[in-house]
Amino acid sequence: MPENTEQATAPIGVLLVDDQPLLRMGFRLILEGEEDLVVLGEASDGAEGVGLAATLKPDVVLMDVRMPVMDGIEATTRIVAQSPESKVIILTTFDLDEYAFAGLQAGASAFLLKDVAPEELVHAVRLVASGDAVVAPRVTARLLETYVRDGAPHRGSGPAPERDPLLGDLTPRELEVLGAMSEGLSNAEIAHRFFLSEATVKTHVRRILTKLHLRDRVQAVVYAYETGLVIPSQGLDY
């Protein structure tokens, strides 16, 4: 019992990966102004970030995309593979950025605009570190719609993709929750829609991720779009 209490109150460790020193400094000042956040280290390129992530084991990595030596997409792929306990937030300049979508495909848990307000940065880091909150906001859903629409095999004149056999393991309620997750709804919003408790929703989300072999709810959203389960603006395709 004491161990759980200590773990729950431990500071959230953050790694900053960006080739702009001034931006790293700004993020550090914001994050270290919070009692529950600590910056464990800084890297100026993706390769250095991968190495530091393996050594420092941060809870959250703030990852730029366009960097020398190794870009943020490759770095994210490697960090997710070697340090699954570390969650990556992609930093991007535009909210509809193809690199942000590539980052989500690579295993990032969320993305933020570089000009994010200080309180939003802090909030996002806490949410992603918690693993229970909304890491697939509506802007992420819009991003997915934009960059999956043209390339997804179920669109245009191509044949619809075969239904993933793993979906057969989901209960009707879990399919409904997956659809709501794909809309970018929070656990509280899903609970309100289906008249469930938030604890029950969290259980459904956990089971969905386990059954579909997915890392987090952002990956569930990517999965829903890429497999054709969700068609933009048309809802869940059962």
Mean pLDDT: 80
From the N-terminal CA to the C-terminal CA, the straight-line distance is 43 Å
Rg estimate, integer Å: 18 Å
Q: Globular, elongated, flat, extended or rod-shaped: what is the shape?
A: globular
The ordered H/E elements are HEHEHEHEHEHHHHHHEE
Portion in helices: 40-55%
Uncertain residue ranges? 133-137, 152-158, 234-238
Number of helices: 11
Number of beta strands: 7
- Largest sheet descriptor: 5 strands, parallel
Tell me the β content: 5-15%
What structural class should be given to the helix and strand makeup?
alpha/beta
Order of strands across the biggest sheet?
A: 2-1-3-4-5
Structure commentary:
This protein has a 5-stranded parallel beta sheet with strand order 2-1-3-4-5, with helices on both faces. A two-stranded antiparallel sheet has the order 6-7. It contains 11 helices and 7 strands. β4 (87-92), α5 (98-106) and β5 (110-113) form a beta-alpha-beta unit. The chain has 238 residues and is of the alpha/beta class. α7 runs parallel beside α11, α8 (172-182) packs across α10 (198-211) and α8 packs across α11 (217-226). Residues 133-137, 152-158 and 234-238 have low confidence and may be disordered.
Chart the SSEs and their pairings.
Blueprint: H1 2-9, E1 12-17, H2 21-31, E2 37-43, H3 46-56, E3 60-64, H4 72-82, E4 87-92, H5 98-106, E5 110-113, H6 118-130, H7 138-149, H8 172-182, H9 187-194, H10 198-211, H11 217-226, E6 230-231, E7 235-236
Parallel strand pairs: 1-2, 1-3, 3-4, 4-5
Antiparallel strand pairs: 6-7
Helix pairs in contact: 3-4, 4-5, 7-11, 8-10, 8-11, 9-10
